[in-house]
Amino acid sequence: MAKVCWPYFDPEYENLSTRINPPRVSVDNTTCNDSTLIKVDSMNKPGILLEVVQILTDMDLIITKAYISSDGGWFMDIFHVTDQQGKKITDSKTIDYIEKALGPKEYNKTELKTWPGKRVGVHSVGDHTAIELIGRDRPGLLSEITAVLANLHFNVIAAEVWTHNRRIACVVYVNDDTTCRAVDDPTRLSVMEEQLKNILRGCEDDEKVARTSFSMGFTHIDRRLHQMFFADRDYEGGGVANEVDHPPAFQPKITVDRCGDKGYSVVSVRCKDRAKLLFDIVCTLTDMQYVVFHASISSDGPYALQEYYIRHMDGCILDSEGEKERVIKCLEAAIRRRVCEGLSLELCAKDRVGLLSEVTRVLRENGLSVTRAGVTTVGEQAVNVFYVRDSSGNPVDMKTIEALRKEIGQTMLLDVKKTPVSAREPEARGWAKTSFFFGNLLERFLA
Q1: pTM over 0.85
Q2: Which of 143, 224, 236, 327 fits a 20 to 30 Å CA distance from 135?
Q3: CB-based contact 339:324 (threshold 8 Å)
Q4: CA dist., res. 57 & res. 54, Å (int)
Q5: Is the pLDDT confidence value at 245 over 80?
Q6: Share of the chain above pLDDT 70, in %
Q7: Which Pfam families match (predicted)?
């Protein structure tokens, strides 16, 4: 019998093209008067666009325009970016880090670890256990969750909470309140999981859609929240919640057409501009198994105009009306998950066990419902940011805020900001300047 011989493949062969043609990154501050141009040329690979956009947005850079092309084996992007104040990127350390973070990966393994600036994309907080929760949202739910964790002697060191279509998804980092180490005792974790599931179910039987899971690893929080909502099919939620949560100024207009000559499907998006919009859309398309071959991103006053030429990973375009409708719904959901209206409360205080439980309890007792939250603890300092509204969905009465100031103002600093709700607001990029980014704030403290 003839012996079967399989061809030998050098394990390093896959990286050969990258080593021969490493990524080239340039940061140009001369061509454009009002923004910095970041140009990235590299070998094409699955997920590279999301990787680049994720790095730029995690650095708090505002992408005002972008031109993307990755047809064939080469990936070429040009990004027009500014800082949070709308100015060019002139800091030499930041520029150096951009070049290395987007450049050959050999740099990432060595020099980037010792760079004293932000550690992009790392949302871990050291020795922790990550808890992922998703279920039906209701007023006071976050308070109940944090109370359970405090009663079980888990200290919340960081968290990110999103709500959309009356669903809630959150990633919470906890450790033992005595040892400050990750909790790996299966008995304690089992008790915590059961109690959290009971809270998420509430009075109704939500067993099938209320989930709790644990992880000891690392995750990119924003992408993970998108994935959790997508798996939860939040884009199928309808009707009343959308009307309450998103007035006409926020309604995105999304179309899917066919580019017959080139064999692409063309996704066009027009919506209110905001920070991380490009990331949210690219993240969703990637997780839906679509590949972006070309794209153009720009801003027209307070609105963003984005156009993507895509195919499914198997090379097919979007032929059926059902598939087109699903893409539109998923992108609408991705755009809206991060939208926050009304008031944001920024609280800063000396950290202590049960602090988050106490704060969320006070918010609940004052009739405030949390629509989004970011929580982090660095050293002895706790920084919590809550986007809140009246539990009935109405704007928050300022008398309520004053009562809140009196109740918690003695022990912590409280800053109240109003987020714009109209497309006619004078600040076209108001969200970019006032929105809270948990991962970025955390990395500033860790730097």
Answers
A1: no
A2: 327
A3: no
A4: 5
A5: no
A6: 76
A7: ACT
